[in-house]
Design brief:
Helix content is 41%, strand content 20%. A four-stranded antiparallel beta sheet has the order 2-6-4-5. Strands 1-7-3 form a three-stranded antiparallel beta sheet. It contains nine helices and ten strands.
């Protein structure tokens, strides 16, 4: 049976919305498969779509003029990729790269901007998520600047592990080095220490987390700060008002119904 925004949205932000909003959105979203390594958009470009990940994980990266980049935040099923679409700017502040292949709901940037503008409660919910996302970005920036590589790696592994099922990450050390903006040799050394401590097992493109609590103990405080921000978001979502004023009839535009297989 195909999933819908009512029966099984599999995205926490979408799941928090009331039924009438899901009705409004259902014919404006489509199910898409995101492929590992795909660039959803680049920094500075006009956003055409936003993505609500279901099983995919997307890395938001800040590109540098020399071609390098660093991860500033990670988005999974807790949120949405492309927040600038409903904040009035329209252009992406960072690039978005698929780090873990999977499914997502896709919606046009115009439709999400219209919905946010015409429904104050929905805009409030989107802004709550954006606040948590900006906490993630700010903490990542501070982490890159002030913390040693080993705690950074623990934080990175934990944040990505929280956004998927199972205890295995499929990623190369070279790619992690790129996300953290460091040399590959540094990641190799830090990963080796974690493996010797019995916290992870690494084998060509696969990292298996054996002791999550052990990683948490070795991580810097940034992991806990960001985790608390998203936990507050979930707590607030369960308490916010569920009754909305009717959406304007002018907003309704026919479109095909997107469904997850």
């Amino acid at each position: 049976m195909s999933a819908t925004l009512h029966t099984d949205p599999n995205n926490q932000l979408l799941a928090s919305l009331p039924p009438e909003i899901k009705d409004f959105m259902q014919c404006r979203v489509e199910a898409v498969d995101l492929v590992n390594g795909d660039m959803l958009y680049e920094a500075g470009t006009v956003l055409r779509f936003v993505y609500f990940p279901v099983s995919a994980v997307v890395s938001l990266v800040s590109p540098l003029i020399d071609g390098d980049c660093a991860e500033v935040a990670v988005v999974g099923s807790e949120g949405v990729v492309g927040v600038c679409a409903f904040m009035g700017g329209g252009k992406a502040l960072s690039s978005a790269v698929v780090l873990r292949a999977g499914r997502a709901w896709r919606m046009s940037a115009r439709d999400i901007a219209d919905l946010a503008r015409e429904s104050v409660p929905v805009m409030q919910q989107l802004l709550r998520y954006t606040q948590a996302l900006f906490t993630n970005m700010a903490q990542s920036s501070a982490c890159h600047r002030h913390h040693q590589l080993a705690p950074q790696l623990c934080r990175w592994l934990l944040q990505h592990l929280d956004r998927q099922s199972g205890n295995e990450l499929r990623i190369t050390q070279e790619r992690i080095a790129g996300m953290l903006g460091v040399r590959r040799e540094g990641i190799t050394g830090a990963a080796l220490k974690l493996q010797c401590a019995g916290l992870i097992r690494y084998a060509r493109g696969r990292i298996q987390v054996l002791d999550k609590r052990g990683l948490e103990a070795r991580s810097c405080e940034c992991y806990g700060v960001v985790k608390q921000a998203y936990e507050r978001l979930r707590s607030d979502a369960s308490a916010w008002p569920r009754t909305l004023s009717p959406l304007p009839v002018s907003s309704a535009r026919p479109a095909s119904v997107g469904r997850l297989a």
